[in-house]
Amino acid sequence: MHFKTEISLKPGDRLGQDGFKARLTHLAPVLVSLSVGILCAHVLFASPIELYSVTPFSEDPVGSLGNAIYFVVLVGFGATILFLLLKRKRDRLIAIVVGFSLATAAFLLSFVYLSAALGLFGFPFIEILVPISFLLTMLVCYIIFKTRSKFGDFFVLLLGGALGAFLGACVPTLSTVLILCFLAVYDAFAVYRGPVGKIAREGLEKFRGLSFTFRDIHMGLGDLTFYSMLAGHMLIYFGLSPCLASVFGILLGCFLAFKMLEKGGIFPGLPFPIAFGLVFGFLVVLFSHKMGFEFIGLALGGLRSRPLPLFYSF
User: Is 306 within the bounds of a domain?
Assistant: First the structure.
């Protein structure tokens, strides 16, 4: 899956000549995507389906560091490939790569969440999941790539929330923290010196499905995914209160990033939201009775099948 992780203005606003002002309403799509992610995380937590870690290395300090580097390399490689294709004007190949990536993600997420939802109700006919997931994938791809309507942007919000919740559920705590921190640092580099910023300057219209537009602001699918990864992980592993605190931190960080756009241009979408989300979320964790000690055990102990009572700290 290729991610785009930057926030930018529409081309006409690059120098701020239209007087762009950050407003709370600009947070609406982020809040919608986070809400979807939290709902998806709750479904995964409550369902009897078994989830496995999707990280390639073990959950110890060295392995978690390897997992973080793996994700950064994966994201960086994808962004570089897309930039090279854009530079060589391979528009058709870009459409194929983006379409295949989104279709794969949509099918996987449809299958996982339908399995989880059916598991909640004890529905036995699992064999219908493949055709239903396929139909949903075709619907999503048609709306995003063919209709070119606002519904396409809405489905990008849904994909970001659902994919982030899935990653938050399947990546252990220490790896999650390191992955998000490393990606935030990489994002700052990639936007100003690397392929992400160059893609944003060359033109985002060729990457429909990997970004969305809301009131003069462009945001990448990767931003939404990693925001929801943090919020979903906090909900599943630590409870509702840390999750809400991380959501507040993410929204605060997004608003500060939007304020930076008042000067025009582009700004990395991960550093502020991830930093505030992690700090606020784990502050609540550390001040919630024995949860601070539980966090140390989680960070060093790896993925737990059913980590903590969902509303432990509410």
Answer: no
Taking Cα atoms as reference points, which of 9, 3, 4 lies closest to residue 257? 9
In the chain, the DSSP E strands lie at 6-9, 211-214, 217-220, 266-268
For 98-110, letters b (16+ CB in 10 Å) and e give: beebbbebbbbbb
Please write the tens of the pLDDT for every residue from 92-118: 888 888 889 999 999 999 999 999 988
Domain with 81, as residue range(s), is 23-301
CA–CA dist 140, 151 (Å, integer): 9
pLDDT grade for 162, boundaries at 50, 70 and 90: very high
Query: Global pTM?
Result: 0.85
pLDDT > 70? residue 310: no
Helix axes 195-202, 173-192, angle to 10 degrees: 50
Q: How many CB atoms lie within 10 A of CB 146?
A: 9
Q: Quick one: tokens of 242?
A: 């840390």
* Nearest C-alpha neighbor of 275 from the set 145, 167, 168, 188: 188
85 domain residue, yes or no: yes
Total tally of structural domains belonging to the chain = 1
- The answer to whether the beta carbons of residues 56 and 175 sit under 8 Å apart is no
Contacts of 275 (CB under 8 A, 6+ apart): 184, 249, 253
pLDDT in tens, 193-226: 777 766 766 666 667 778 888 877 888 888 999 9
In a domain, 258, yes or no: yes
Confirm whether 161 is domain-assigned.
Answer: yes
**Neighbour-count burial of 118, counting CB atoms closer than 10 A to its CB (0-12 exposed, 13-18 middle, 19+ buried):** middle
H or E element in which residue 2 lies: none
CA–CA dist 248, 214 (Å, integer): 20
256 in Cβ contact with 209 (< 8 Å): no
Give per-residue burial for 193-225: e unless 16+ CB within 10 Å, then b. Answer: ebbbbbbbeeebebbbbbbbbbeebbbbbbbbb
* Cα angle for residues 71, 73, 75 (degrees, 5° grid): 70
